[in-house]
């Protein structure tokens, strides 16, 4: 159980919630959240958007019953958290290029911030694509060296990846697949996958994805995979 | 061990009647991070087949009001890998590990059973009720005749006691249970998931690649309770009841309906500590009611 510190809409249908939490949390990891008894039945997987000084932040889009209920939580109310879960992004050395689409930007902010902390001299470039309204952009502008914005277009149209840059992408599957396609083979590309989840801890086999090495669980072995592991190229 | 909750299932002693259900508990490891598995009465392994199985393609989970539909399709590493990688760990645990076995045809069931003769399993759960595989699976569990036939062959071949897991989707469960009893089953477990269907009207598509899937969770509880009662009335061998159990009160209702043990499935996903909460709740109930053993309220209807 954790206490909600703040929970506000930052854009149409997009909420930012901060809760009190102590623990080791890696960028790319997620939590299973619930703030209800048995209806809806399952907890909701939501990525870590930021973590600092015992404050854990989620950025989420209201799409159905669960996220709608989360969006109505007021400060001081309780939310049940299970996690952190999943592998998270690997520690990145060298230059970083991040490509986020829509709510897929959620896990990327903590990644960029963390990267900056550990690589003061590294270069970090960010591409953010939105269908109609942009959000969260200023946060990225503070943490990254360069932010490229696209609204209503196709983000990969302007994507230029430098030699040696590590690419990390999260967003709609079609976007991640096209990122995987346009980035040269010499660059390492990490994708953060989604799957319907029941347990979030590797017990139900509901989130399986096919990989080069056979089936893997998105919740436990992922959600972060290399592009060639998951046949994105 | 709690005197009030210690339960004999046939000749097998369970510390308490609470057992996580097959397919919802992996091989236990994932939940070890949350609690000591030796607190459990027992645990059921993921359904194992002779050969490794990759499971079904496409979406595998779909939430419904108070329920969960799954189409896992018995993804598992196969019996050999289980014996090599999981069993050494499980056999050291001071709790009853129930090994759940599925198959695609008689031959594959029997070969799997034969391989399990090499290890000291306390109880086999013969799964003739999986609705999510094309061949075998539920097919054996739909009719008393086929259920009885496969049970007889498995019991004959196995060195271990066999409990048969029944489907809610076939002919009268009481008749099927009786056929299994006559064929030498030590016990019965039920229910496996209820076959259902999901359609995504926005995409004008069925949700599951396998078309139909299995429904579990609180939504199925009244059906599961009724079927558990019918089977308990029909047979003398012990029964493990399950289907939608989410609280100790639910568990108690299954015991009152006649179940010797109960299994907890989907609720493990909702609350990883659910089995422990249920054990504690049953213990407190016994103390409050002054019961020497939970058996005093078993099968009272
Ligand atoms: C590892 C991971 C991290 C995620 N991180 C974020 C995040 O940071 N911010 C954010 O806004 N969303 C995130 N999502 C997606 C989020 O989990 C879903 O939007 C949410 O579960 C929808 O719940 P709902 O009740 O509002 O919608 P409903 O559509 O009513 O949900 C019905 C069921 O489908 C599941 N479901 C629906 N959409 C998705 C989806 N896209 N992915 C997985 N399950 C889904 C729900 O969990 C629920 O069981 C993440 C998903 C995963 C797998
Ligand atoms: C994700 C999932 C996987 C399952 N896998 C198996 C399995 O491998 N073998 C089996 O006999 N039953 C399997 N079941 C059925 C459960 O063991 C149980 O019979 C059913 O879910 C009803 O109980 P519940 O409502 O408490 O979940 C599975 C159920 C779920 C939800
Ligand atoms: S969500 Fe259960 S195994 Fe991944």
Automatic annotation (TrEMBL), chain A:
Pfam families: DHODB_Fe-S_bind
Record's keyword terms, sorted: 2Fe-2S, Electron transport, FAD, Flavoprotein, Iron, Iron-sulfur, Metal-binding, Transport
Record has DNA-binding as a keyword: no
Annotated ranges, domain FAD-binding FR-type: 1-91
Cofactor: [2Fe-2S] cluster
CDD domains found in the cross-reference section: DHOD_e_trans
InterPro entries referenced in this protein's UniProt entry, alphabetically: Cyt_c3_hydrogenase_gsu (IPR012165), Dihydroorotate_DH_ele_sf (IPR037117), Dihydroorotate_DH_Fe-S-bd (IPR019480), FAD-bd_FR_type (IPR017927), FNR_nucleotide-bd (IPR039261), PyrK_electron_transfer (IPR050353), Riboflavin_synthase-like_b-brl (IPR017938)
NCBIfam families the UniProt entry points to: PRK00054.1-3
Family indicated by similarity: Belongs to the PyrK family.
Identification of the protein by name: Dihydroorotate dehydrogenase electron transfer subunit
Organism: Acetobacterium fimetarium
TrEMBL record, chain B:
Catalytic activity: (S)-dihydroorotate + A = orotate + AH2; (S)-dihydroorotate + NAD(+) = orotate + NADH + H(+)
Cofactor detail note: Binds 1 FMN per subunit.
CDD domains: DHOD_1B_like
EC number(s) given by UniProt: 1.3.-.-
Keywords: Cytoplasm, Flavoprotein, FMN, Oxidoreductase, Pyrimidine biosynthesis
Broad EC category: oxidoreductase
HAMAP family in the cross-refs: DHO_dh_type1 (MF_00224)
Name of the protein in its database record: Dihydroorotate dehydrogenase
Source organism phylogeny: Bacteria, Bacillati, Bacillota, Clostridia, Eubacteriales
């Amino acid at each position: 159980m954790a206490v909600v510190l703040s929970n506000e809409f930052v854009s149409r249908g997009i909420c930012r919630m901060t809760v009190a939490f102590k623990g080791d949390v890696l960028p790319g990891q997620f939590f299973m959240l619930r703030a209800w008894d048995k209806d809806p039945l399952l907890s909701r997987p939501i990525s870590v958007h930021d973590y600092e000084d015992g404050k854990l932040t989620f950025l989420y889009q209201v799409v159905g019953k669960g996220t709608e209920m989360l969006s109505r939580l007021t400060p001081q109310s309780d939310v049940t958290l299970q996690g952190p879960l999943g592998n998270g992004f690997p520690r990145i050395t060298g230059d970083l290029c991040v490509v986020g689409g829509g709510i897929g930007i959620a896990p990327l902010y903590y990644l960029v911030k963390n990267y900056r902390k550990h690589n003061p001299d590294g270069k970090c470039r960010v591409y953010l694509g939105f269908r109609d309204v942009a959000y969260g952009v200023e946060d990225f502008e503070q943490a990254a060296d360069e932010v490229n914005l696209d609204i209503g277009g196709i983000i990969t149209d302007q994507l230029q990846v430098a030699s040696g840059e590590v690419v990390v992408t999260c967003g709609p599957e079609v976007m991640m697949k096209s990122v995987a396609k346009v980035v040269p083979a010499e660059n390492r590309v990490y994708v953060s996958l989604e799957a319907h989840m029941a347990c979030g801890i590797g017990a139900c086999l509901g989130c399986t994805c096919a990989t080069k090495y056979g089936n893997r669980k998105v919740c436990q072995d992922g959600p972060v995979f290399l592009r060639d592991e998951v046949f994105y190229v | 061990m709690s005197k009030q909750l210690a339960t004999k299932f046939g000749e097998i002693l369970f510390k308490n009647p609470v057992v996580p259900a097959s397919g919802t508990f992996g091989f236990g490891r994932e939940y070890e991070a949350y609690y000591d598995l030796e607190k459990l009465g027992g645990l059921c392994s993921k359904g194992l087949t002779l050969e490794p199985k990759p499971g079904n393609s496409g979406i595998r989970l779909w939430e419904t009001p108070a329920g969960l539909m799954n189409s896992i399709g018995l993804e598992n590493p196969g019996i050999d890998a289980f014996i090599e990688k999981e069993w050494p760990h499980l056999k050291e645990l001071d709790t009853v590990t129930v090994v759940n076995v599925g198959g695609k045809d008689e031959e594959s069931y029997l070969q799997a059973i034969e391989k399990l003769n090499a290890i000291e399993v306390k109880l086999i759960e013969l799964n003739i009720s999986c609705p999510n595989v094309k061949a075998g699976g539920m097919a054996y569990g739909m009719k008393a005749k086929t259920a009885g036939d496969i049970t007889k062959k498995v019991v004959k071949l196995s060195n271990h006691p066999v409990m048969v897991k029944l489907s809610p989707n076939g002919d009268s469960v009481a008749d099927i249970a009786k056929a299994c009893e006559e064929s030498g089953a030590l016990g019965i477990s039920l229910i496996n998931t209820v076959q259902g269907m999901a359609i995504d009207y926005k995409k004008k598509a069925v949700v599951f690649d396998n078309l139909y899937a299995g429904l579990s969770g609180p939504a199925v509880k009244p059906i599961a309770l009724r079927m558990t009662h019918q089977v308990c009335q029909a047979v003398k061998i012990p029964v493990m009841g399950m289907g939608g159990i989410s609280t100790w009160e639910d568990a108690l209702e299954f015991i009152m309906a006649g179940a010797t043990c109960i299994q907890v499935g989907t609720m493990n996903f909702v609350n990883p500590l659910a089995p422990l909460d249920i054990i504690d709740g049953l213990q407190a109930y016994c103390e409050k009611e002054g019961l020497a053993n939970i058996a005093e309220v078993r099968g009272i209807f």
